[in-house]
Amino acid sequence: MNELFFRTKLACWVMTALQLFCFYSHAKEPRASQKPNVIFILADDLGYGHLGCYGQTKILTPNIDKLSAEGMRFTQCYAGSHVCAPSRSTLMTGLHTGHTPIRSNGGDKSLYDGDVTVAEVLKDMGYTTGGFGKWGLGLENSEGRPTRQGFDEFFGFLHQVHAHFHYPYWLWKNDEKFFLPENEGKKQVRYAQDEIQKQTLDFIRRNRAKQFFCYLPYTLPHVELVVPEDSVQPYRGKWEDEPLPDPRPGYVGAKESRATFAGMVSRLDQNVGELLALLKDLKLDENTIVFFAGDNGPQGNQWQKLADFFDGNGPLRGYKGEFYEGGIRVPMIVRWPGKIKAKSVSDHICAFWDFLPTAAALAGAESPKGIDGISFVPTLLGTKGQRSHPFLYWEMPQGNKLSRAIRMQDWKAVQSKADGPFELYNLKSDLAERRSVVTENSAVMKQIESYLATARTEERKLPPENHRPSVKDYVR
């Protein structure tokens, strides 16, 4: 009797010890979940051809190329617009520029409380949400600031012009200024993207045991042309170069503009590598889906020489600020180990407004009603049932006039000048948009015109004046 009692008691002690061991072991490791962490990396002014996995030969991007090799590379992904702010607005709201709140640059508009962002959708599903980089969708005293749009944490730039400067005197941390006193007087000590990266990695470490959404609208490789020397050094003196001064007041040019720009892309690549390494170290790799994309095409105008030298738009016509393919077709890579087939390539036609419903589907959430986006989860997972858009639509207000573009299957109509005539291209036979065939395809244009008639609603009124401080407040 005593021996039986002793054995029973010993078994209870062993079971209790095992339960305690399992409890504390799991407390130190992230809990498993069917819902993945979601990370979206958005590079600033990175063209379709700036990455090795998209044909780049001069700039080294080993980490992003590895991301592609371990995931899916898209060949027909479109930005939300040909410039920064509206492109980001479509990404956050799931609405194309015929419906999204912000349809042009300038920093004078913001999202409203009634707008539903992807951060709010995921936050409602229990995700911790963080944004790190360039926001551009509402300033500190507006309804559009990140902490009013579903983000638990934000660090970086609110105004897009402020984000042009890579050694600012201050950044925003949530709703307070985060000063970089070492940069006072235009000193180049603390590089903004490095500070953003530190905050990004810290957010992931702190939230490793939770489900998180991490939005990373990084500031590279948008000019001004400046980056720490360690990133430039591999390219220093590699090519014949000429100074590329920046004519805008307060901005930095570069004597070796090609080496400097290549260094900026390489630093972006380095940051991606650091992020992926951290996910593996924290054992979050297989439960995290990582999206990577550029926000529009490469910069033209006074920087066109750089884009051309590096073949930044690949085989495409046009640059940032244009609705030709080079202005809006962007690199996009998605990686989710064990779920997305490695080394896969997709020609699925998608756009930034598809991200919100895709993220919602991954989280098991319902998408907001009335959005323009379509989830591309079936494409990512290689399952049946992928829906397609009847058309993709873009617009850019210019006063009371519009420049527009629409893609319908292989057809692409471009109204390059506000209220000007449309050009028509067949992208299957003329990817570079060299020859307009509008006069030979009246039936196609008739169908496109029917879509144009229903593609938009009127843009909402500007926010109150206190949402629009002078741009001078943000210039270094």
Show the helix and strand layout.
Layout: H1 2-28, E1 37-43, H2 62-69, E2 72-78, H3 84-93, H4 118-124, E3 128-134, E4 153-157, E5 170-173, E6 176-179, H5 192-206, E7 212-216, H6 229-232, H7 257-281, E8 288-294, H8 304-309, H9 325-328, E9 329-335, E10 344-346, E11 350-351, H10 355-363, H11 377-381, E12 392-398, E13 401-408, E14 411-415, E15 423-426, H12 442-452
Parallel strand pairs: 1-7, 1-8, 2-10, 2-11, 3-4, 3-7
Antiparallel strand pairs: 2-9, 4-5, 5-6, 8-9, 12-13, 13-14, 14-15
Share of residues in helices? 25-40%
Q: Which term fits the overall shape?
A: globular
Main sheet makeup: 11 strands, mixed
Distance between the termini: 85 Å
SSE order, as H and E?
Answer: HEHEHHEEEEHEHHEHHEEEHHEEEEH
Uncertain spans, ≥5 residues at pLDDT below 50? 8-12, 14-33
Q: How many individual helices?
A: 12
Structural class: alpha/beta
Determine Rg (CA atoms, Å): 24 Å
Strand content: 15-25%
Overall pLDDT score? 92
Q: Find the count of extended strands (DSSP E, 2+ residues).
A: 15
